[in-house]
UniProtKB/TrEMBL annotation:
Primary enzyme class: hydrolase
Any one Gene Ontology molecular-function term assigned to this protein's record: 6-phosphogluconolactonase activity
Cited InterPro entries: 6PGL, Glc/Gal-6P_isomerase, NagB/RpiA_transferase-like
Limits of the Glucosamine/galactosamine-6-phosphate isomerase domain: 15-87, 101-197
Keyword annotations from UniProtKB, A to Z: Hydrolase
Name of the protein described by the UniProt record: 6-phosphogluconolactonase
Classification via SUPFAM superfamilies: NagB/RpiA/CoA transferase-like
Entry's EC annotation: 3.1.1.31
Superkingdom, taxonomy of origin: Bacteria
Length: 206
């Protein structure tokens, strides 16, 4: 089970500070690219806006979405489109997920979580997919989540676990209860599968 640190009541600014420190630390340790994966949904975008205010060389940052909805990039539901609009003007590279891509080891896997315990687009009722050893997969959530009822492309558990550190941003009491059960080993949801496979530090911002 992962070594999990929970940071309570973290605002967007505090999370952006933490992300900037992590990215800065990796940048200072070498001169190559810093590769991270980030969630979609709604939570990350205000944090990314705060991160972009930090004094970092964003031209060294390579950003992989955790997952995306199969929609054009200019569609309001596209994670990649929103990430690209925010990050590319700052010089960062945003990768388009395609199933042929070779996924690198991430310096940081930043994840969100749904109240049903899904992470990336790995939903609770996708058990064979949770055991899948491919790096990226296309899937149809069943049922389709009402807030974003689209087919998905997603990094898999092995890809997300191939990271030096993991961070979650999990807001609200409903999600917190799901997280606490997963941390206590009392759950079989995708978030719990990830935590049980994690041997790197995990930081959860609530
Ligand atoms: O594209 C997506 O839908 C995701 O990557 C997904 O896993 C998201 O992180 C959670 O559903 C939390 O989403 P919210 O931040 O909107 O609650």
């Amino acid at each position: 089970m992962a070594d999990v640190t929970i940071i309570e009541n973290a605002g967007d600014g505090a999370i952006a500070d933490w992300l900037a420190a992590r990215i800065g630390e990796v940048m200072a340790a070498g001169d190559g690219p810093v590769t991270i994966t980030v969630p979609g949904g709604s939570t990350p975008f205000p944090i990314i806006k705060e991160l972009l205010e930090k004094d970092l060389d964003f031209s060294r940052l390579v950003v992989w979405p955790n997952d995306d909805r199969i929609v054009p990039e200019d569609h309001e539901a596209s994670n990649t489109g929103k990430l690209r609009a925010l990050l590319e003007p700052a010089g960062a590279e945003v990768v388009t997920l395609t199933i042929m891509e070779a996924v690198p080891r991430f310096d940081l896997a930043w994840l969100g979580m749904g109240a049903d315990g899904h992470i990336a687009s790995l939903f609770p009722n996708t058990d064979p997919q949770l055991r899948d050893q491919r790096q990226i997969m296309r899937l149809t959530p069943d049922p389709l989540p009402p807030e974003a009822p689209y087919d998905r492309i997603s990094l898999t558990l092995p890809s997300l676990l191939n990271s030096a550190q993991i961070a979650f941003v999990i807001r609200g009491t409903e999600k917190r209860a799901v997280l606490d059960k997963a941390v206590a080993g009392q759950s079989d949801l995708p978030v719990a599968r990830l935590l049980s496979g994690a041997d790197q530090p995990v930081t959860c911002f609530t």
